[in-house]
Amino acid sequence: MQLISIAAPPLTGQARVPGDKSISHRALMFGALAVGRSTVEGLLEGEDVLRTAEAMRRLGAEVVRRDDGIWQLYGRGVGGLAEPEDVLDMGNAGTGARLLMGLVATHPFTTVFTGDASLRSRPMRRVSEPLGRMGAGFVSRSGGRLPLAVIGTASPIPISYELPVPSAQVKSAVLLAGLNAPGATTVVESAPTRDHTELMLRGFGAEVAVDALPDGGRAVTIKGHPELTGRAIKVPGDPSSAAFPVVAALLVPHSRITVPGVGTNPLRCGLFQTLKEMGADLQWQNARDEAGEPVADLVAGHSALKGVDVPPERAPSMIDEYPVLAIAAAFAAGTTRMRGLAELRVKESDRLAAVARGLQACGVRFEVEGDDLIVHGDGRPPDGGATIAVNLDHRIAMSFLVMGMASRRPVQIDDAAAIGTSFPGFVSLMNGLGARISEVQP
Ligand code: S3P
Q1: Cβ(38) to ligand 1 under 6 A?
Q2: Domain 3-19+236-439: what homologous superfamily?
Q3: DSSP for 238-285?
Q4: Whether residue 193 has pLDDT greater than 90
Q5: How many helices (H) and strands (E) does the chain have?
Q6: What distance in angstroms lies between residue 84's CA and the mean position of ligand 1's atoms?
Q7: How far is ligand 1, taken at its centre, from the CA of residue 95, in Å?
Q8: Mean of the pLDDT values across residues 26-49?
Q9: Residue located nearest, by CA, to atom 9 of ligand 1
Q10: pLDDT exceeds cutoff 80 at 85
Q11: Domain ranges across the chain
Q12: Ligand 1 nearest-atom number relative to CA 197
């Protein structure tokens, strides 16, 4: 289905975004490992997370969605997963695939993973390399890509591993493998990445030590064979999804919206910090803690933005938000330099290339210099008037629909399907605020 987004009148009202994708995947995985009952309220029911739910069932856990919308799990205990009878198809979900590869690497059976064309093109050696050191074997397609079989080891070796790329998925894969290894497994990261695995595993009863390193990095150590006990989890609204209505409200004149219950984990909030530096009218209200994660209501109003420098060390805390930040930068007065975006090239698509193509088509002035994206705005709406190729990438789809809400001419996307991986109900939520996004009749 193709969608078109035309200039929107002022956006107003409440935008309740779906549950956090990173936290939802982890809640299902850890609930499937815990002894006894876990409940998950506010789970993101997007395709990515539903694939993880199905995978956990196939690995032997009881996973049901109750009539009241709460997900309920009875886990198998650490080390208690069972060999799946068939291939696990993880769809578009890199987080689901990579974290599960870690989990099964230290179980004595073989698990075969596949996914959609996007996931099958993504690099998996970043996970299989450290998991191989722990004793697991891998048979994969060329380039270490899916379909891929993990031959789990019966005698796992705990390791200390320094991340070569700042990736919470790789960190989590190694830590999850370490759950069923004897002794201590350590991951060292030179720049802190999202820490939902550490926070949630602690909540389930694991011993997780986090040491700050003098160079600003962290060493995360997990003690093997913990007893994880079922618990109740409340999933906060996803800040990466909140990014779309928030940026839309900043760009569409006279808008003011509230996004209630958004996760404010500092390792996820680089976009909001950057937008504030650009002069955005953004406030956090009613800050509170919900099941171990900080949460607040986010209020955003139309703002005249100015260009800023976004330092490379901020990238891990806003890695999924650069596409929509590039849209905001196109409306800002002056130049926005987004530096150190190498990891954007290996997301659901090559997002650096996709954003560049889209900006070009919409008449925005920009340069890509190495791993940096430099966008020049003049404080006026860009032309728009293009059709953007989504290439199975949900964040590219949503970012350019936001562009169309405030650009001079409408913006179309060639395929809306990917939006459902992380943000089911995106179009009706945005239209509920005042947006004019509709299906293009063939
Ligand atoms: C995620 C980590 C990030 C992010 C992805 C979710 C996670 O990926 O882009 O959407 O839940 O751990 P990387 O670890 O590859 O940076």
Answers
A1: no
A2: Enolpyruvate transferase domain (3.65.10.10)
A3: PHHHHHHHHHHHHHSTT-EEEEEEEE--GGG-HHHHHHHHTT-EEEEE
A4: yes
A5: 13, 24
A6: 25
A7: 6
A8: 98
A9: 320
A10: yes
A11: 3-19+236-439, 21-234
A12: 12
Q: With the C-alpha atoms ordered 81, 103, 319, 409, is the resulting torsion angle positive or negative?
A: negative
Q: Is the pLDDT of residue 317 over 80?
A: yes
3-class secondary structure, 89: strand
CATH class entry, domain 21-234: alpha beta
Cα separation, 210 vs 213, whole angstroms: 10
Q: Has 320 been annotated as catalytic?
A: yes
Predicted confidence (pLDDT) per residue in 221-263, tens digit: 999 999 999 999 999 999 999 999 999 999 999 999 999 999 9
What's the Cα-to-Cα distance from 47 to each of 53, 96, 419, 420, 428, rounded to whole Å? 10, 11, 9, 6, 17
User: Which atom of ligand 1 lies closest to the CA of 166?
Assistant: 16
Question: Of the residues 95, 103, 163, 201, which should be mutated to test ligand 1's pocket, given the most ligand atoms within 8 Å of the CB?
Answer: 95
Among the listed residues 116, 238, 320, 393, the single catalytic one is: 320
Q: Do domains 3-19+236-439 and 21-234 have the same CATH topology?
A: yes
